[in-house]
Specification:
The protein is mainly alpha-helical. Helix content is 82%, strand content 0%. The protein has one domain (12-71, 80-150): Four Helix Bundle (Hemerythrin (Met), subunit A) (Up-down Bundle). It has helices at residues 3-38, 45-53, 57-70, 81-117, 123-150.
């Protein structure tokens, strides 16, 4: 088997795997905060749920990046080493950025959930601040799209 296709598939695995792990951890951070906040203010469950779910989007970026590359037709037995390295780099970059972004976004959301549970209405402000880490996941996804276009 050629090294190019092997590198490409490792990159795709990292893309989906790291992004998915980040989302799972980020959502769990928000979920843990929700359980604590429910003890204080059960009526704000809708806000807690939305903030808890927000880090789940990074896993979707990882899957979307996989889908874009997998459907482009570049992954064949004749995939060159350079193409494989490009897919690997895109996968590693998108996966790593989504991993860190989702975890940090989950922490921001958890703080907002705790504040809402304490009676402070910071839902909108928390959403605004939680979007900042999301921006970097979007930039990494855009870079994946551009790398794929260059293949």
């Amino acid at each position: 088997m050629e090294a190019g296709i092997v590198l490409a598939y490792i990159g795709l695995g990292l893309m989906v795997g790291l992004a998915g792990v980040g989302s799972a951890v980020g959502v769990s951070i928000g979920g843990n905060a929700t359980i604590g906040a429910l003890k204080k203010n059960e009526e704000a469950f809708g806000s807690y749920m939305l903030l808890s779910a927000l880090p789940g989007t990074q896993g979707l970026y990882g899957f979307a990046g996989f889908f874009i590359i997998n459907t482009s037709g570049v992954l064949t037995q004749s995939t060159t080493l350079l193409q494989g390295m490009a897919v690997f780099a895109a996968g590693f970059a998108l996966g790593l950025v989504c991993l860190i972004s989702a975890i940090r976004q989950g922490q921001i959301c958890a703080n907002g959930i705790a504040s809402i549970g304490s009676g402070i209405d910071v839902f909108g402000k928390t959403m605004v601040l939680a979007v900042f880490p999301e921006l970097y996941a979007i930039v990494a996804f855009a870079a994946t799209f551009i790398i794929n276009a260059g293949l």
